[in-house]
Amino acid sequence: MPSAFSIAAKIGANGVEYGPELTTWRHTQSTEIILRSLIDPDADIAHGFAGTEVQTADGLTIHGLLISDSDPVIIRSAGGITQMLRRAKIKMKTGMERSLMTSATQLGLTAQDAADMAAFLKSR
Q1: pTM of the entire predicted model
Q2: Whether 39 and 23 share a structural domain
């Protein structure tokens, strides 16, 4: 079950820094908040994890966490892919109004799967 989180966050030493570190986060959240985060990740984006959309001059669109806004711009995308882009190659850079986290529905998870994931997080 933890592999579903590995593209979005860390649990201890596992996963990538693309969302809150779940080892401590899960202990400070109720089961209801964990479920809401899985089902509707846009409802409450964790501080420091708002996404950025970068469009390059050659038509590439990148969604991820802005790591550095200097030159080069550094952005980390899902799976921990980190890219460096020279400012001169960037056509547009804007903040995203939706979460970078994939929802349970987008992952094809059932309500029971989401409940099982929340229970797993709370039990560790």
Answers
A1: 0.74
A2: yes
